[in-house]
Amino acid sequence: MYETFYHLQAKPFQLSPDPRFFFSSRGHRRAMAYLVYGAHQGEGFIVITGEIGAGKTMLANTLAQKLASQNLVLAQVVSTRLTGDDMVRMVAAAFGLAQDASKAVLLDRIEQHLLACSQQGKRALLVVDEAQNLPMGSVEELRMLSNFVHATRPLLQTFLLGQPEFRRILQSPAMEQLRQRVIASCHVGPLDQAETEAYILHRLLTAGWRNDPSFSADAFAGIHQYTGGIPRKINVMCDRLLLMGSLDKKHALAGAEIASLVEELQQEFAPLEHRVSGEGAG
Fold this sequence. Notes:
alpha/beta, 12 helices, 9 strands
């Protein structure tokens, strides 16, 4: 809708992760370096944590794009409190294998598939998102998959992406065996104010922005203050800001527009909060 008004070639602040819009902040650059390093090591586990909306899935998608032409087979699984058996089935599905079999047969299929990849000169990578939701049974299955080797070389490497609490989970005694196989880990924090401005401009420029609308310094400051530098929150706010600007036919966005939008957003959620508190009181 606002793309036409502002002559943009794409929607700059969409929520779905698109590697074209990947922004290399200090934290994301470090995390990507760990992922690429891990991909070339070909063994063990690499752990990347970050707040909700910090861009972990974007990292995984960007990694997939970077490695697409390097004889690497990448499979992705999103954990939703999967049991151990379900995890095995999800991994099989992620590698394109049939799931109509027992767990033992599925494990054999996965091993044979990984072996075939290795014999073809390819390396297999598994990315598990939302790793903080993994029950111990699923963690154990992932650890067992890491035991598949051929000629002393591991057949699978796993990247675990999770929210900050996953770092605490990893410190528990039950995670000792997995923890010993983690070859690298890092945490992706929020963007600072300068990075928030650079992030917004990067996404706008990628979408074909030509300084319409313009953003004042206090607009960037207000966006950072409201979102705390979390990329997903920035996307939501900026998408709404551009919509509001196009409806009001504004070609310059400043602190006043940010304050107006923040008030509007707060009012939208207020009725819901009132209803919830009212229901609880009854």
